[in-house]
## 1
Amino acid sequence: MNVVVSIGGSVLAPDLGANRVEDHADVIRELADEGCSIGTVVGGGGVAREYISTARNLGANEIELDQLGIDVTRLNARLLIAALGEAVVPAPVKDYEQAGEVLRDGDVCVMGGVAPAQTTDAVSAALAEYTNADLLVYATSVPGVFSADPNEDPDAERFEEITATELVDTIADIEMSAGSSAPVDLLAAKIIERSGMRTIVLDGTEPERIASAVRYGDHEGTDVVPEGVGDEPTYWAEDER
Ligand code: UTP
């Protein structure tokens, strides 16, 4: 099975803790040992936001701020690389072609941001599309896709399953309201829609949840099932726990 796992910076490194990074690395290593081809994309989280707001106050322009954000995503990616040890690239991969080569060689690929004016949500979707992944998993700090921003709207409800087109519409609505934050960004949702990529959005703060989603399709987040995708992927094993 060929999977891309997107790990938000606020999930992997809300603060600098070796144990948390180690726990995520353990899950990735286990899945790789089971024969899974894994591309991981790491976000910048709160640290990236702090650097960006400080540099904005210093007069940096938006592209410069994005470059700073990319640097922080790559720092976080280096933490994961440090914890993964062998069978992983020695430095964060910088583009999709290089990522494809790493995966073809049978290694775990770890990357952060790629180019300005997007986030690692979109990088993850693009990597999944480029490598023709069976599954894309967003390990975020929220428990799935909601009908509205749950921090802003008490009536927001979590979707168990939505189509990619519904994902695009939902995210577009959430992004329209100032200050709201969506679990994945609109560009990522559009890439998922065009590629027909089966996607799961879940709370990834407990890394074992990522493992269950990849192994069995078992999770408490949101399944994004693009139109035309079959009912149940054949790669999911029966959960025999
Ligand atoms: P993130 O992907 O971490 O943004 O990238 P985020 O939405 O805050 O995600 P979480 O909180 O980690 O889940 C951090 C910043 O880096 C720049 C953008 O400015 C983004 O806001 N970035 C990242 C890019 O410009 N291009 C990229 O490919 C990735």
Note: DSSP finds nine helices and seven strands in the chain.
## 2
Amino acid sequence: MQWETVIGLEVHVQLATRSKIFSGASTAFGAEPNTQACAVDLGLPGVLPVLNEQAVAMAVQFGLAVHADIPEVSVFDRKNYFYPDLPKGYQTSQMYHPIVGAGDVEITLDDESTKRIRIHHAHLEEDAGKSLHEDFHGMTGIDLNRAGTPLLEIVSEPDMRSAKEAAAYLKAIHSIVTYLGISDGNMAEGSMRCDVNVSVRPKGQEAFGTRAEIKNVNSFRFVERAIAFEVERQIELIEDGGKVVQETRLFDPERDETRSMRTKEEANDYRYFPCPDLLPVVLDQAYLDHLRSQLPELPADKRARFQTSLGLSAYDAHVLSASREMAEFFEEVHRVCGDAKQAANWVQGELSGALNRENLSIQNSPVSAKQLGELISRVLDDTINGKAAKQVFQALWNGQGDSADAIIDAKGLKQVTDTGAIEAMIDQVIADSPAQVAQYRDSEPEKRGKMIGYFVGQVMKASRGTANPQQVNGLLKEKLDALL
Ligand code: ADP
Ligand code: MG
């Protein structure tokens, strides 16, 4: 039997507002426990929530970025349940009239093919507090700093068909929210986390199978691993004559497995009802137009422009547009050196390699975009050759000079293109290598091309890497062949 995987994601994004969604308390991460939850966040009697306009604007901008309908009216509802990290006894969310309607996102797969994933809707809600288990033996501590942090929950249609597609979708969402600047997207700090709904069905069958929901997965890699485990579990279960039950599961990264938390029968009846403390949100066309005019160029548009007007490959365009910081860095390098292909090669090659080795993000690159652009310019105008360029890059990286030009001067790396000087070096190398010259002369003509490498190496060494390699090659061949 052939099986097909069906996946739908509910992504929670913490919005980067400075204050909470219904109060003026700070949303900053990492403060001492319970120093950033005010009376409104705790739902003390007599307080009234006031909606944060910035959260509304951010949600709408997301909606516009994913080509969604933005309904004129959206409404906040109370979702009633008890949990220690929710002192109010309900979460303020949007059940029936979300702020963002149906839209779609384009994802890019490993083979550079693309696919559209539909978004069902996105709604605003407040985050809950956090339970702390480690420091309290046999008890639970509660930190309510996170209570009231604005969340945008983005619900996809069940359009994904593999773990790779799910990860690509999550990356696309991550890239959109960080381009928009509506979230820092920091998954390690919980700024973005997702519930993964997974089911399987026999290939060719139209009806969906019963799904399991894996809660709170907080990295791209965990999404893929959780799905891989879950798909295998469900197929095995069905093939052994069992049935998948609709339930909530938890992914355990240490054991690489999912475990049941609660089944649908135990699910809460949340008794949603419109929050009487908050008016419906009414957005007019002028407001939407204003927000639309503020949108930055988005990842999909940037990718398309990198391909069509800069002539980059689909792969380069995808990699360079994946994060806003990467795209901005690349564009600055390109602006300085004027050659898109060279800029792309250096950013993805030498620079990304060095950043990866030292586990640095591009925002913290020791070499600035301007410095890299100037370095590339010196290669393009033949001031230095490729080998010297790598030395200059290393020196910039290590802070041994402020600019490519300064390092080229200080280290004497200027390329030697003077034919006379190169010829003199070649003559010296030939005079110093009688055995190799004899070997060259005595070998088959088709093998000589390879043997010339030895002489090129010697001349480059004599020039301390500064001779123009094309000239060295050409002149060497002439001089050696003259000896035949
Ligand atoms: P609920 O209202 O119970 O949360 P929804 O219908 O809103 O359920 O779906 C929640 C998420 O689960 C959505 O992202 C949706 O795409 C996904 N989903 C729904 N049915 C399936 C299924 N059979 N297999 C995989 N994902 C599914
Ligand atoms: Mg749900």
Note: Residues 220-239 form the longest helix (20 residues).
